[in-house]
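$ run holo --ligand "S-adenosylmethionine" --emit tokens
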Amino acid sequence: MDLEFWHERWQANQVGFHQGETNRHLLRHWPQLGLAKDSRILVPLCGKSRDMLWLLEQGHTVVGIEVSQLAIEAFFAENNLTPEIHEEHYGRRYVVDQLELLCADFFSLGQQDIGVVSAFFDRAALIALTPAQRPRYAVHLKQLIDHGASGLLITLEYNQLEMNGPPFSVPREEICHLFEPGFTVEQLFQFDALAEYRRFREKGLTALTERVWCLRCRQLPAKPS
Ligand SMILES: C[S@@+](CC[C@H](N)C(=O)[O-])C[C@H]1O[C@@H](n2cnc3c(N)ncnc32)[C@H](O)[C@@H]1O
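-- output --
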């Protein structure tokens, strides 16, 4: 999807992807990453996700990336937070305590913009992208995160002929294809999610699998001396 699509979604308040509660896969599986409390966490394509608040509550520092200024401002307004705003070369950077939200195109940012992160949380980021955009996302994510970083990724798989994305179906094999060999890829959980997503049933889906993945950056082999 192009950025205009997302700007229009936010302007029209068509944000059915937004969750009023903390994502339950995050609650259940995040401890498996075994992170230090003060770890810096990247939340790509963050929208106004409340998951960022939960990550902050764990003691983490959070850096979210979101192209829509409306989404970012809604996040702060809805959570009664007043950020400091800094003008940067890529756009605005909003800061409150241990949280930074960068209002920018994910693909335009480099590691110098987001700092050194040790983990990421991707809920509805990869699956918001078209098949053509996803390889670039995987490569860019790898470039942004610190060597040795890990992350949780949540995906959906369904028959793409039954419904248009986003969210797009990302088959299990594609996850391995996209992220290996830069990451080790481990599926932590999968379940039949159709009963939970009324809006997708109404669009015609007859089967839907939700999966939770743990990705860990592979260490580069040591250079021979
Ligand atoms: C499906 S929503 C998911 C939001 C959030 N992760 C959540 O769980 O609610 C995808 C978000 O990515 C943003 N987005 C799409 N492409 C982007 C890009 N290239 N750079 C930054 N944000 C982007 C959209 O504005 C939208 O808020």
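-- notes --
Residues 134-144 form the longest helix (11 residues).
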